[in-house]
Amino acid sequence: KVITRCSEGLSARKPTTRQGVPEEQQLAPTIEIPRPPSPLPPKSPEFDPFLRRFASPPLSARVGEWSRPPAGMGYLSTVIGHPTDGSPVSGGGLSQNGKFSYGYASSLGKRASMEDFYETRIESVDGQLIGLFGVFDGHGGAKVAEYVKHNLFSHLLRHPKFMSDTKVAIDDSYKSTDSEFLESDSTQNQCGSTASTAVLVGNRLFVANVGDSRAIICRAGNAVPVSKDHKPDQTDERQRIEEAGGFVMWAGTWRVGGVLAVSRAFGDKLLKQYVVVDPEIRVR
Q1: Where in the numbering of this chain does the PPM-type phosphatase domain appear (predicted)?
Q2: Dist. CA 136–CA 148, nearest whole Å
Q3: By CB count within 10 A, which of 48, 91, 110, 266 is most buried?
Q4: What's this model's pTM, rounded to 2 decimal places?
């Protein structure tokens, strides 16, 4: 007998046979296709495959957290602090108007301590939602990267030309954040950080960076670079360093003064004359 599935459940019947055809080939297997669940609304983060990649724990366990924004806030986001024990952390958010979503992930890897930070913020400026995202890769310690995380975007949002001339505001904010740190902490002479930031204002995306933390845009499945690494052996960077009285030498890789493998960064007080914090800004 062959067990078959029917609309009422399971039933048993004896199959009919055709002359010359083995019995096991008489019946094609039946496949029951379950009815698909009702689609989620387009603005739900559970619907967004990008957010599902980065969410931990699974979004299905936290839908309520996403669907109710904090009072007075114009965005939805998870709130997960920087891990102190080096454990991986991930999460994401969705703008209230459904225009964009974001995700983030951080992992210590094989290093002894975490020196890197990220920042994600969605703010309302003059009635317009603004997205601010950054990665800060520390070296020689975590102090500079942590300071930039907590202060760079605050300086930018307070800049009087933030909405009217965003490029100028970003440039000024990078430099003022660096100057404030160098003046406030005289003990971190060899500590520094790269920065790669993306600021979304309306339909314009402002990508700025110092150092070698790279920003990319995904188009049709292809990674398109939207920032340029700042390395000491690049012709323009090497010329600038040497004109300022510094030098570039090989020490496992090309380094400023034989020490630092990037030519632009926050901090690095002992090399500040050569390692500038002038951001390279591109508008998409």
Answers
A1: 101-284
A2: 7
A3: 266
A4: 0.71
